[in-house]
Structure formats: structure tokens, C-alpha cells
Fold each of these.
Amino acid sequence: MTTRREFLVAGGALATAGRALPPIRGRAAHDIVFRRGTVIDGSGTPGVIADVAISGSRISAIGPGIAGRGREEFDARGRVVAPGFVDIHSHGDESLDADPRAESLIRQGVTTIVVGQDGSSRGAGPAADAFANYLRQVDAWQPAVNVAAMIGLGSVRGAVVGNADRPATPTELVRMTAAVTAAIDAGACGASSGLEYTPGAFASREELIALARPLAARGLVYASHMRNEDDRLLEALDEAIAVAAGAGCRLQVSHLKTQGPRNWDKLDAAFARIDAAAATGLDIAFDRYPYVAYSTGLSNLFPVWSRDGGTDAFFARLDGGDTATRIREATLAKVESIGGWDHVMITGVRDAADRALEGQRLGTAAARTAVDPYAFAVALLQRNRAAVGMVGFAMSEENLERILAHPLAMVCSDGGAIATDGPARRGHPHPRGIGAFARVLGHYVRERRALTLEAAVRRMSAMPASRASLADRGRLVVGAPADVVMFDPDTVRDRATFEDPFQYAEGIDVVTVAGEVALAAGERRGSGKGRALRATHRRQ
């Protein structure tokens, strides 16, 4: 790919590079034209210098020197023009009803999110039209980004079986399968499991295979937050592969990681299992966010069996006796595996009285009050009815680069839609929700050179769109929806940090969604052109 410096020297830089060109007079041939940018189309092939024209909600022309002016034109010299990014693993819909602006997403160039992850989704009720109603609700929000959704198998189990650690009865399994099938018929782009979370963790392998079978006939993906991502990572990966193979469906391993220093050397074995499964014909891939810390609920440091039956049952087990001792031992072992209590950051609480703890390391916070860290954590959970978020610092930077560079990898945020103001500014979140895609482009492409720019764009566009069965997304081709991002490859970067997460990315110049400008020169525009996307089914 021609570098920005080489291109500007060859072509003669104008002061307006990257900015809107003056408006034209008279009739325009196109609504929007990006002029003389490096077009990286999402296929992974090298970028080329070309124009991209948009008419209405579609891309109308791509090529050098497109004839006819646009109603609005952007000088893309020295910039990359690419498909709007597709976040294959997002929790962005959790705040879109309250704040449909999706600020952190648009400002990273993300135009489509895939939600319903980790086994948890809306629209998972037993009513046949529950999922269809949810997708209609998304349209009513008029979000700034498009939303594709998976059906969460944990939510389905919770709606039918409840929070108990027991096998589903045959009747319950029929009802759960019907709920999955109804969601697929309504447009779900796959099904997800969250096997470290309750009640999804109580599902057997056989139950998961049964619930994933309806995916196979439509060519949809089973996305799994596996049962374990640390000491039993390889066994959990074997299970995920077995579920997909048993159901005959595609497999997406969610946020692949080797958690805890004593497990960092398992990456080669994990890759070997993935590559072997692919060699047998299994359609397998994985995603990862570009950070070495994960985010979850504080209660997930406690063993799954202790959370059987819900919050009240969990708290009752913490109150004393042999069971409480067993819980403490298991939890301390988990915390030791990630490096201790100061590898745990508190990110969100329900009780306003605990708000000052957000952003603090748990070990340090406990020491300030001269309270044992385990007792501090238990009391914090109890005061907040278990609604406490955390970030755990537990992964290897070297492994992260290798994961992002793997040919079956794609980029995700695993984060929400965050804003620096309004209702989407809450707690002290992991910076991945506001910086993941810019971080890949700036840190891992430009600075670390862990992968090429073309490969990174493909992992953010065409690959995730294909995994989510969104046939017309993720590529810059004539006729495709006009979801486009223009960015400066020399300056794009994330600014959000673990200490100060509420900072938008830099270097994203222009974003369009359905042919409407949503971002230009750092200013938000548009009225919310995103919509709920339905999967394009394919026969296997």
C-alpha cells in the first residue's frame, strides 16, 4: 500500500486533505464522493487510489476520477476509505434505548454491531414473537449504528428452566429449541452461549448441541464464551468444537484468550486445536479485543456452583459453614491465578454510596479500610445485590499480538456504546468499548506491525459480516449499503485508558451510515440511520 507521505509527495498535498471540499453549485451527480483516497475494500487485497461515490443509501461508483460531482465531497488524499467496521462481539445495545447516538462506536468507525453475546440477549422469552418484537424495538430506537442480534442460550434457559443447576426436562428442551428456532426465523444471526455465567453454565453439552442444531440448516454460527478461559481452557475449547460438530453448525470462539500467567503457554495448543478442527471441515473462527485485561462481573470470581439458584441463594452460601469456606478457597485460588486482588479493578456499582470505588483496584481499596480483600469483595457484592463490574488484568501482550495476527481471527470490542456525556456515561468502564478498533489500527498495525492495514480492515469488516451472515455488509463494492469510514492511517489511535476511559478515538475523519454522514471533522451529524439487520440464511 502506498504510504501517506509517498502519496502526498507524488500528488501534491492540499491543505484540505481529509476535509470536506467546497459545496458545488448546480445539480449533483452523487450525494457524497470521497476523492482520491486509498480504498481498502475489506477483501484483504492491497489498497488502491480511487474515488468512492454514494447515491442515496448505496455505493454507486468506485474508481479513479469518477465523473460528476457530489452534493458533498471529501478530500481523501492521504486517507484510507474502507467499509464501516462490523463489531462481531458487542454489548452496545445495552444503552442504545437510552442513548441511540452510539458515540463511542461511530467515533471508531463502527457502523454495525453484533449483539446478544455471551449467552445473554433480549427477545429470548418463550413467546414466539419475542425476538421479532425486539428487532422492531431496535428500529424504533433509530440508532446511529446497525444492530444484528444473536439469540442468547443462557437467556433462553433462564426464561424456560430458571436459575437452577439441573438438566432441562424433555418438555423444557422442546420449548427452548422452539424459542431458538423462532428467533432464527425472525432474523437472528446466530446463537451464543455464556458458559461461565449463570444460568448458561448449567447447560450440558447435549443441551447445547440440541439448541445449536437449528442453526445448521440456515448456515448460522454458534458463538461461545467457553466454559473456561484459564486452567481448563483446552478442555473448554474441545467442548465448543464438539458442540458445533455435533450440531453441524459453524463455530465462533468468543474473545479467545489464555487467562492467567500460568496459562499463557497454552496458546500453541489452542491454535493447534482450532487448526485441526478447521482441517476436518468445521467452519471455525474466533475474535478478540486488543487489550490484556478482561471485563466481567465481580461475582464471576466466585465458583459457578456457588451461584446456583440466583443472588439470594448465592448470598446464603456466603454466610458461614463449610460451604462458605469452600467458596472462599476457590475464589482465592482464582484471584491468585490472575495475580492478586490488585489485578482486579472495580468498574461499576449499583449502590451510589460505593460510587467512589469505581476505577479503584480492589486490593488497594480494601487496604485503605483495613479490611481483608475477600471480605471486602463479599460485602461489596452484598451491598450492591451482586451488581458489581470488574476488570481483570490477566493476559499476555505477546499472545494478544499472535491472536490478532492469526488468519482466523477478527477484531471485536466486547464492549458497550459509551459516551462522554449523557446516559451512556456510566461507571468506570473497560476502554475497549471506546477505543478497540482505533487501537488495532494505531497500535497493532502502525506501531507494532503485528498485521497489515489491509488484513486489519478485513478482520473489522468482511470477515465479521460473513460470520454474522450479513451478506451485503463489510465490503466496498458498488450496490452495497453505504456504510463507509475514512481515516488517517498515520494518526488514528485510541485515547481511552484504564485510568481515564472516557476519551474518544482520534484519526477517524468521516463515517457514513446508510449514505448519511454521521461524523465529519470530529462533529456528529445525522438523525440515526441505523436499523435492525436480519441474517441472510444459506443452506449447508
Note: The chain has 17 helices and 22 strands.
Amino acid sequence: MLAWLDSLSHFHFLRPWWLLGLLPAALLVWAVRRRGDVRRRWRETIAPHLLDALMLGERRRLALRPVHLTALLLALGAVALAGPSWRQERPPFLDDKAPLAIAVDLSPSMDSVDVTPTRLERAKLKIKALLARRDGGRTALYAYAGSTHMVLPLTDDASLLQTFADALQTRIMPVPGRDMAQALRVIDADLKHEPVPGTILFLTDAVDPAAAAAFRAQADSGRSQPVVLALGTAQGGPLRNAAGGFVEQDGARVFARLDEAALKRFGDDSDVPVATFTPGSDDDVAWVQRHVQSHLERIQAGDRARWKDEGWWLVPPIALLAMLWFRKGWAVRWSAGLLLALAFAAPPEARAQSSTQSATPASTPADAVRPWRFADLWLTHDQQGRRAFEQGDFARAATLFDDPMWRGVAQYRAGQYAQAVQSFALVDSAQADYNQGNALARQGQYQQAAARYRQALRRQPQWPAATANLALMEKLLAQQIPRQKPDPDDEEEPPDLPPDEIKYDAAKPPESGGKSLQVGLTQDVEMWMRAIQTTPTDLLQRKFALQQGQGAPAQAPR
């Protein structure tokens, strides 16, 4: 009941001037009734007492006549066009999952056992519960202590995220400490490239008071929202060491305790949400997810909030009433008007074209005039292209899309790589540069493809796919050896192994032909696989050490 009253209090019309259409509806009924009023017509000629006697069989009740139906249709149409509304639209990107970056504190205190089995292991369980709640939302994983390192970029692969989350250990961090301000800067710089605002979740057992100012500035910036979830207890617990025992100092065990007062001060100073974990439930995980979604709604609905047009609810009754026009004696000659409206609804270029125009070939340029179709009355070109794309008809989709990015993707899927390069070139973004590189590589233009990948990495650093493809291009360029006797027919063909077979188009099978390059790449892959004789934890430790410029740590004996 309260929800209904609240909706009623927000009821208004988006286009109230259309309500003036109610006046013609009322005037139409009045005019027709006045015209059919026999008593009014003879009132000035026949005396009233005689007129009453002459009016035989006068109908006193209101009969439903075609004019009433027409007036009702006009009234309903006017109300529908006025745009009745009582609730706001969801933001345009709300259906997309809000990006989330999880920053895990790998300071030594996270090995405390006051939380079973340890604070770090409990953080991993919270990550697992959060990934389950996000249901495919794009999530990134970072580790921080005295330095900050990306573990995985934004991905919707929950199993991969959980695998690397389970591999996190405090011993892998190259720099001791707890620099939360640096972690915030690094992660926010990565999330700046996202089209929708994100949230940065810090899983930690202590806060850095010196970072409060940086967190407040971040919260006020309108970009990625920081959220802090602390793990631990006020009673604290001893620190577990790598050997399975406990850390001791001067013969006494070292305890780590959760400073709840410091957490509260940090939340007040930084103006960011701060909470402690709930050991017996996932209420804390639900709290985090609510903040992720509410931040997205607040940012996107801020100054772009729109009220939802509910006028479409009146379309079914209007259609049902219109069906009564076909009742005998009620027909309205509307066919000519409908045909005229359809003729003027078609775009000018469609009316100018011949009805016998042939279909547009697959290579039609984007600015060419398309033949008008009946579907243009109901769907935009991009909507028609998306339908053809989802049906697997990529060549037809490429002729329908107006959006250059989608048109390029359709051309790429259809094997029109040269056209795809031209379409992607119309978009100025890192993704467009990356896609151009893929299309150029498909044509064997490895030098140009490498240049596009470098441009994409300049715009979006630490992009794993672009980095891997760039490395592959450089390897292919290094392995190209001039032939002693070039074959003119063979020189126009790309190598036997398409470069994106490995990285960017695994669904397309490799072409057949010479095997020299393929054998070389296969041997390289096998050598890499034989060289990997370590755990994901050790791989992360080496990666972090190399990023910090300390060199790879010594491998533990096995």
C-alpha cells in the first residue's frame, strides 16, 4: 500500500501538452450530438408544448455510437502521447555488471589464526562467496603490501579468479609494509578505462591512517568507490609462519589484534564504507555487493535520471477499441490515410529508389545508401544487424550495422578482414586498435598489426591479450626468413598458422599448408610447458619480484 501511494505521489505527465488532444475528443462528441438534436432544430419553429407531442419515440438514454468510440480513441491516444509516468527508468548501463576490483592485503598479519583457519584463508572464502553472488560480473584481483600488483585483470571467469585467489600467500610480496594509498592509485588508474564506474574492495586486517586523505579524495571524485572490509578480532591471535608453527619474538608469540577504533576513525576521516566481517554468515558479502550496485546506480542516475514512459500500457486497449471499427455500420475509411502515413514514414532515399533495386553486396561501404526495408519501420539498422549477427549471418550483419565497431566485428567474423580494418579505423579507442591488429594479422600484415597492438597498450597498459598478441607478432616477424626462390603465387598468402589461432580467434581452425612455422611455434609451447614446474603461488611470487625489479626469487627445493 505504501509503495502504491509513493508511486501515486510521483505521478505526472512527461509531455503534458499532448493532453490538449482531449479537447477535440470532447468537442467531437458535443458537435455530433448537437447536430443530431431534433428538438433544438425545431425549437424556434414549433411551440414547446406542441413539440413535446410531436417528438414520438425519442430516445432518452445514451446510446453507444461510433462518435463515442472515436472520441475515446482520441482521448486514450492523447493520454498515451502525454507520457504518464510514476517511476524512474533504470540507468542505461544498469543491466551490465558493475566492475569490481578486489585488493587483498598480503601483510604478515594476515596469517593470524584468530579467524579460522587464518585471516587470509577467510578472505579467500569471502572472495568465493562474493563471486557466486556477482553471477558473472567482471572482477579483477590485486595483491598489495608495500607494493601493489595485479593478479588478474577484469574477467567474468569465476573459476580462474578463485584459482589465483587461492594461490595468494603473504610470502610472495617483494616489499613489506601496507601502502593502501599506492594500491588505491594503481587500481583506480586501471579502472579509469572502464565505461561504467567500479568499486575497489580492500580485504585487510588493518588500515593506514595516512591513506585517509587519498581515500576521501577518491570517494569525492565520482570514479571508483573504495570499500574496506576488515577481517580479524579484537582479541587477536598468533601469526602462523611458513613452516606451520608460529612467529615468535624474544621467546614469545607475536599476536595481531584488530583495532576497531582505528577502523572507525579511518571510515570517518575518509568518508568511505568500512565494515568488519561476519564470521557466521555472508552478510558482509551482501553488504559489499549492495555498495557495488548502489554506487553504479548513483553515478549513472545522478544528473541523467529519466522517468519511465508508461504510455505504452494504453496501446492494448486502443488496439482492442480500434477493432470495433470493423463492425458493420461502424467502418471508418482510414485505409487511404494509413497508406499515406506509411509512404511518408519511409525515409526520402527509400522513396527515391526503384522497387526493383538489387540487394546490396557484402562489400557495400558504410556511407552507401541502403535500400529501404519494411523492418526499418520497427528496428534501427543496428538492431537489425544485431539480429543477423546473433543468427550467425555475419556477412548480412556487416551490411546492416551503422555502428563502425559492430560493423567491423561482423566483417571480421565474415572473413572480410580488409573491410574490418577500415571500420575499426573509424573508432578512436584502445579496443578498436586491438581489433585492427587482429584483422591485420589475419592478412599477414604483422608489422602493421604490431603497431596497432602497441598503440592499444599505450592507451590501456597491462592489457594481457594485447601484450600476448604483440609478443606473437614480434616472434613471427623475427622468424620470417627470405626464400631463395620466391613463388609469386605463394607470396600473396599468409603463413599457414593464423596468428589469432592462439590468442584472439580460437574458434577459427588453422589453415592447411606448410608446417615449418607451425612446428616452430609448437616446439616453443612445449618448451614453455616443460619449463613450468612450479605452483601458481611461486609464479605470482616471481612475477611480483620481476615487476618490482628485484629479480626472480630462488626456487625452493622440491
Note: The longest helix spans residues 283-301.
Amino acid sequence: MCGIVGYIGPQEKKKILLDGLQELEYRGYDSAGIAVIADGKLQHFKAVGKLKNLREKAAGFRSEGPGAAIGHTRWATHGKPTELNAHPHVGAFSYVVHNGIIENYRELKEELEAKGVRFLSQTDTETVVHLFEQKIKEGLEPFDAFKATIDRLEGAYAILLISEAAPETIFFAKNGSPLLIAFDAEEIYFASSDTAVIGHAKEAYYLEDGEYGYARPGEVRLFGPGGEKPISTQPLPADKAMAQKDGYRFFMEKEIYEQSTVISDTMLGRVLEDRVEFEELDPGLFEGIDAIKICACGTSYHAGLTGAYLLERMAKIPCQVEIASEFRYKEPLLTPDTLFITISQSGETADTLEALKMAKRAGLRSLSICNVDNSSIVRESDAAILTRAGIEKGVASTKAFATQVMVLWMMTLYLGQKRGTLEAETLQIELDAMRRTPKALLVEEKLHERIHRLSKRYLHGHGFFYIGRDLFYPLALEGALKLKEISYLHAEGYPAGEMKHGPIALADAELFTIALMPRTLLYDKIKSNVEELSARDATILAISPEEFELADDFIRIRHAEHPMLEFFEMMVVTQMLALEISIRLGNDVDMPRNLAKSVTVE
């Protein structure tokens, strides 16, 4: 969610900070700010709302020459979105930016207030800068004061701090929230995601939990629990093309269209002529494994539900799917014969990361399915499969979901091969279907135009029901989530067979039913369910290769011989429908209200 950028060097610092924050705004924010120290003096600017407001506030400010600078986009956790609560937070002579949550901030705040410190904001972050300055007043040198400060903090944090007590220096610390240091000759950059520094720096170091240190021109000192550590960098990507809109109206629209390409990247080198292979996996990971537990949140949870159907059906292995935020507190029974799989687009999802740590403490082997290498979840896992979806800027996930489902499908075949549960003929049918998936994900102009025309009829009503069976039940959940995320209309996903156990009471002409009706899987069953809704005058939009005579509206998908090909094509239709409805309603599709791309707090 919140974004961090920092810079040490001679360039115009305001521009570097604002441009870096612009690259991170897709993560979601409600205020922003920057602070620069030059000629030994601090200056800062803050604004509520979009970055353009901050740019206007800082329009007359220049900051060339030696110095240090930090910037932040904030998504409110403690305190409302106001300028006082926006980062950077100020002390008497220092500024701090922070991602995460300081869990013991009330205790620290009371302690500091008892010493006469006056707080300006309602945030947990402000305790950090005041605690640092208190340590300076007690006689500690700046770096010792910073170390003493972070030693007192409990919770998750990525912190950058600058101070007149140490001009041209940035103090940094990381625990449970992402932070990296990037380099270009003598210039030093900091960011919460490499998106902000691509094009500026050539290589980066991704901090581990418990690491901290300081940077000044031409020098970075890194420390961990065992003392000082060397920094081993890795190259940064050089091309930002995937992060640009390429003529599309919204990043989400571009990302829907990209799915056909990125799914090929996901399969590259993995889907072979006669088998699925994952070079990144040690076969020993699965030895002695008799069950799988998948843990995820939101869209990734829906991908996990889809995977569970596939894993049990073809790999013949029991699979349970857990919502990470619930899993953490249910005192789950964890046995060492269970493989613990986490799914996350960003690899920084706080609840999923904590669930993974619980599983590891219980001795379970772990595998992550993730889009971001070097992310916290990837580093914490015993093994990882990267989805290769590329940068996804739309808050409502599309191509990340598609690639997660594809990885789970591939993993099903991989395990089926190892466990001997797939006959050679069945395996070949699955592999052939996989190879046809990119075509199923192509968005045809004719289809897009039809969805655009239909969308004007779905801007009102008292709600949407997305219904499906089997694999298409998780897709109904995901379709409903996409609509509610960006249109703000009420939508629910439901197993079609459960409608008569309560929800059918809502059926009338103002209830819109999106019926997922695949020809290859339980078609007659779901047809019967939709007929029940139609008989109660619900408005029906059927998505199917077979025309349904009782449908008020109908979107035809191609005839396919495999359920997953119908799944992916219907997925595109539900994504496009949510997109077009949201656009007609005048919403900001890429940055819907109250949502963040990467949920890095509980």
C-alpha cells in the first residue's frame, strides 16, 4: 500500500521523489509528502489527495546540489487522511517516513509525552522521529540514536529518516515491510518497490527483516542482528514499458489485454511436449507430502479455490484453502505431511506472510506462488514459483489471477506425474489444452464492443449474483469481486446449487444474475439453477458457448473441449464487464476508493 522513495545525490531531488512516488501511486494512497535536507537545513511539503496537489505545493522549490531526500504516499491506518497525518513526520530537526504499523506506539507515545514531547498527528509513525530525537538529546550519536530507536519498535516497518544532526545521511531499517537500496555510481536510491527506481539505478539490494544502517554520498553501511554485513546487489530491469498504458484508457484494461501474452510467459520452459517441469523446485519438496494447505487473501484466495478443485481431481491429493486473515487466529492443526502453499501477487501481503511464518514455525515445508521475486513471501518460503505476470498497476488484479490459476493447473499436472495419478492420455489432453490457453485469453474487438454496449444496462438495480458450479464457483467469486472493487455496486459470488437455500428470496427484475454456463462441466445442472431464477423474474446475463433461451442478455464464448479453456475465456468476459460498467459510472478504474494494491498491514 504506502510507498517510500529516498535519494542521496546531487540531482534535483524534488523531481526524483515525485517521479518515484508517481510510479508507486497504483498501490493506493490518500496523501503524500516529501522532505529534503540541503545546506544542512530541512524543508518539506505535504498534500492530501493525488500527487498533482503535492506537485503544485512544491512547484517553486528547487533542490539541486548535495543532500538527502525522502518521500511517501500514505494510505491511512492510524488517523484520518489529513496533512498533519501525512508523511514525512517532523520532529524538531528530523523527518521520517514509514510503511507498516508500530504496534507499541501508544506505550512509546505516553512515554515521550511524559518527557514533554508534543505530538502533531494521530499516527503511529510520529513516535519514531520523536524517539530518535530524544535519544540525540540524551547524548547519543545519530546512528546510535537511530539503532536505539528501532530497538524499541514492535511491529512491521520500513523506515527512512533524515536529520539536521547528520546532513546528507539517510538512516534506514526494515522489518516485515519491503524496502530496497538501489545504486547508480555515487548516487543512492531507496524505495519500497523497484518500480520507483527502474531507469534511475542499475542495481539493487533488497533488505531482509532485521536489517538497518545508514547511507551517505558514496557509502552505505548495512547491519543485521549479527553485526555489519556486506551488500550483494543484483541488476534492476532497465525497461519501464510494461508499466506504461500503451494507449489504453486504464492500466487495468491494458492488463486484461496482456493476459494472452503473459500466460505464455508463465508456461515458457515449464509446459513441455510430454510433461510439466519446474526447474526451480527440488523434487524432495514433495517427499512425504500427503496433503496441501493453500493460504491467501482476496483474488489470490479465489485462485487457490480453483487450484483445490484441480489438485483433488487430478493429483488426488487432499487440498484445503484458507483465508489468511482467519487462518492466523484459528489455532489450526498443522502436520508435517502437509505442504503449505501461499499465493500473493506482491509477495508482501501481511496476513499471508504471517500465516507462512506460522506454518514454518510448525515445521511445514512451504511453497509460494508469487509475481515478485525477492519479495518477503518468496524469501520466507522454502521454494517459489514465479507467475511472470509482469508489473500489474491496476489495483483490481487481472493478469495476476490468470497466471496464478495457470501455475496451480501446471502444478496439478506436475504432482499428478510424480504421484502416478494421471494416465498418459489424460496428461496429453491437459497439456494440449494448456497450449491453447493464450488463444482463449485473446480479447476480440467484437467481444469488447458487445460488452461495452451491454454494460449500459447494468448500472443500477439492487445487486448482482455471479453463479457457477465446480471450477466456475471460484470464478463467480472473482467476477463479483472485480465488479464491487471498481464499480462500487453490490455483488456476490455464489455456488449455483445453493441459490435455493436462501438467496433466491432476493430474485426479482432488479437482481442481475451473471450465469457462468460452461458446456463442458455440469451444464444441465446450472441450466436448471438459472431457470429457477428466471422463473422468479431475475434479469439473466448468460455467459456460455450455448445460447440460453431464457437469458435477457447473452455473451457467447467459443466452443471448447476443456473446462479450463472455458474458464479463462469467461474470466476475460467478467473482467471486461466490470471494467466497462465502472467506466460508464465515471470511476477511477485503476485506483478504486479505499483499496490498495499491496496490503502490507493487517
Note: The radius of gyration is 25 Å.
